[in-house]
Write a structure and sequence with these properties.
Aspartate Aminotransferase, domain 1; globular; binds pyridoxal-5'-phosphate
Length: about 350
């Protein structure tokens, strides 16, 4: 029986990518060394870095003359501090949209940067985070930027591209849990960051994509924390996570082989529809998320009975459907169905949901 991992992160990687890693691991491109051993100053890595960056921008439809990519460590969480530290320098005031837990963590950490004001300009508190709040386009103060979270990993809500307006204000997005999982007009964003461990690579890599003309060197920041310095040093001011960048490179090739973001989104739409349809058809299980705000990536659901939820998670694991326990903040179950989850995995989950329901009638 095939095992399917529904974890929110670290999450599944494509089986084809795992197979490629296995084949490459002892000897990277005939160097006699594993990719885990090669120097980040070697031409081998420089080629890998350039190709990975070029593939990423190509997939995103962004012009390499205008956009840059950083491959950093520290997770998306570190960007909660680094974005305001680098980019909130004129007004020292930023606007945030409160669409859920991670959006709140980002706002909280931004507020700890000395002298920084953080205004919540929209919140989903009123609907208990079951829908995303509308992104405002007019503001009563001057802000350095607006921060949004495109996919709310815990609540299971998301902004589709059409829900992201073109703003006069610079727009920053935490895309950790739907990065390269669906199409966006990425040119609407001035800076995007994402922890890799959900949809791109193993944990240990954080990607930052930004508009070059928005990012300037800050002499008061240590080089490691300064976007412009990192960009100038090709993300290798200190030792970068070479292995993670290599895996990200393989995942990007895999995305291209699926028809780029258009192809990937079609697959993800089909998977999500399959799962939401089976939850809607069920008398026992339900999704509480507003259909207009449904995430393609993270699908929380409940039976309404905590003990039964626990029983389901346990029984599912015995059927090789792993890590379906919901986040402690919302309880119940959560199926994370990122890019690497095949449709067969979602179908197996739906079959099991049906089976469990039949047994508990
Ligand atoms: C997982 C997650 C984070 C935290 O990521 P780390 O890389 O562990 O710091 C931040 N934002 C969102 C939306 C997430 O899903």
């Amino acid at each position: 029986m095939t095992t399917y991992n529904f974890a929110a992160g670290p999450a599944m990687l494509p089986v084809e990518v795992i197979a490629q890693i296995k084949a490459d691991l002892p000897d990277y491109k005939g160097s006699g060394m594993s990719v885990m051993e090669i120097s980040h100053r070697s031409p081998l890595y420089m080629d890998l870095y350039e190709e990975t960056k070029a593939d990423m921008l190509e997939i995103m439809g962004l012009d390499p003359e205008k956009y840059d990519v950083l491959f950093l460590q520290g997770g998306a969480t570190q960007q909660f501090t680094l974005v305001p530290l680098n980019q909130a320098r004129k007004f020292h005031r930023i606007a945030v949209v409160d669409s859920g837990h991670w959006a709140q963590r980002a706002a909280e950490d931004a507020g700890k940067v000395p002298g920084m004001s953080v205004d919540t300009v929209a919140t989903a508190k009123d609907n208990n985070y079951t829908a995303v709040p509308k992104i405002p386009v007019e503001f009563t103060h001057d802000y350095d930027y607006l921060h949004i979270t495109t996919n709310n990993t815990i609540m299971g809500t998301a902004y589709r591209d059409a829900a992201v307006p073109k703003l006069d204000l610079p727009l920053v997005a935490d895309m950790s849990s739907n990065f390269l999982g669906e199409q966006y007009d990425f040119s609407k964003f001035d800076l995007i960051y994402a922890g890799a461990q959900k949809n791109l690579a193993p944990a240990g890599l954080t990607v930052v994509v930004f508009k070059k003309d928005w990012v300037h060197k800050n002499d008061d920041l240590a080089g490691l924390f300064d976007y412009a310095t990192e960009a100038k040093k090709k993300s290798a001011l200190n030792t970068p996570p070479v292995f993670q960048v290599y895996v990200a490179g393989l995942v990007l090739k895999w995305i291209k082989s699926k028809g780029g973001l258009k192809g990937i989104e079609a697959l993800n739409q089909e998977k999500a529809k399959t799962l939401y349809d089976c939850l809607e058809a069920s008398d026992l299980f339900a999704s509480k998320v507003d259909p207009a705000s449904r995430s393609l990536m993270n699908v929380p659901f409940v039976t309404g009975d905590k003990e039964l939820d626990q029983e389901f998670v346990k029984a599912a694991a015995a059927h090789h459907l792993l890590n379906l326990k919901g986040h402690r903040l919302v309880g119940g179950m959560r199926a994370s169905i990122y890019n690497a989850m095949p449709l067969a995995g979602v179908q197996a989950l739906c079959d099991f949901i049906q089976e469990f329901e039949d047994q508990h009638k």
